[in-house]
Amino acid sequence: MKEALIAPSILSANFARLGEEVDQVLASGADWVHFDVMDNHFVPNLTIGPMVCEALRKHGVSAPIDVHLMIEPVDRIIPDFVAAGATYITFHPEASPHIDRTLQLIRSEGCKAGLVFNPATPLTYLEHVIDKLDMILLMSVNPGFGGQSFIPSSLEKLRKVRQRIDASGRDIRLEIDGGVKIDNIAAIREAGADTFVAGSAIFGAAKEDDPNRYDSVIAKMRSQLAAADG
Questions:
Q1: How far apart are CA 31 and CA 68, in angstroms?
Q2: Which domains, and CATH codes, for the chain?
Q3: How many CB atoms lie within 10 A of CB 207?
Q4: DSSP 142-179
Q5: Using CA atoms, how far apart are residues 230 and 225, in angstroms rounded to an integer?
Q6: What is the Cα 85 distance to its own chain's centre?
Q7: Which of 12, 31, 84, 140 has CB 3.0 to 4.6 Å from 200, enough for a Cys bridge?
């Protein structure tokens, strides 16, 4: 299984100090920056667009930026996020009438492409497009808002996707998003995830005036991941 990566979701960050927040969380050991892009249409919330991604790149953020599109339609906005500096772009199969074409669009623009599965979305799409995926993202909550509780049945779904990835022999990351915390990250790792999105569990961790406030929570997550790996 691939090296475990931690991808804090800026949905839970302080947007008045976003550049500083991202700098601090990366300095504390995070690997990626995760963007939750919502349109108040596909999901009942409205968040951020390509300008924020571009602003973080101009601020000096060089870590991979992982853009999760919870919008419909998706094709129009993909080139904008590519130009803004995205590394990975993932979307929901329900949001594109031509999933194969959308995946090809992301890759043709120079980004890595992924498909996102809500808790009740079937995995059958993988039968047709797994050869075009760089990442599979499983939602362990219903998308729309941060701070929700992990849905336990997500563990079995993770195991099924891990089996499919391993059987394919392809270089595909398996990401989990929703309710990931110190006390469940080991079980999620054991089920097959290698990339872990955490928002409120990290950005809500400690006092805002402490520049090292993310060190402890990320270190504890790393410790749990190491224990899961044996």
A1: 16
A2: 5-229 (3.20.20.70)
A3: 6
A4: -TT-SSPPP-TTHHHHHHHHHHHHHHHT---EEEEESS
A5: 9
A6: 16
A7: 12
What single letter denotes the amino acid at residue 133?
L
| Residue 211: CB atoms within 10 Å | 12
Backbone angles phi, psi at 79, to 5 degrees: -60, -30
Q: Are strands 173-177 and 135-139 parallel, antiparallel or unpaired?
A: parallel
Per-residue DSSP letter, 183: T
DSSP 87: S
Q: Please check the confidence at residue 102 and state whether its pLDDT lies above 70.
A: yes
Q: Average pLDDT of the chain?
A: 95
- Percent of the chain, pLDDT > 90? 92
Cite the active site residues.
36, 177
Cα Rg of the chain (Å, integer): 16
Q: Interhelix angle for 18-27 vs 50-59, to 10°? A: 60
* The token pair that represents 45 in the structure block: 């919330």
Q: Alpha-carbon distance 185 to 221, whole Å?
A: 7
Instruction: Please list, in sequence order, all residues whose beta carbon lies within 8 angstroms of the beta carbon of residue 226, skipping any fewer than 6 positions away.
Output: none
Q: Is pTM, for the whole model, over 0.90? A: yes
- Alpha-carbon 3 to chain mean position: 15
| Cβ neighbour number for residue 37 with a 10 Å cutoff | 26
**The total number of residues written for the chain in this structure:** 230
DSSP 8-state class, residue 197: E
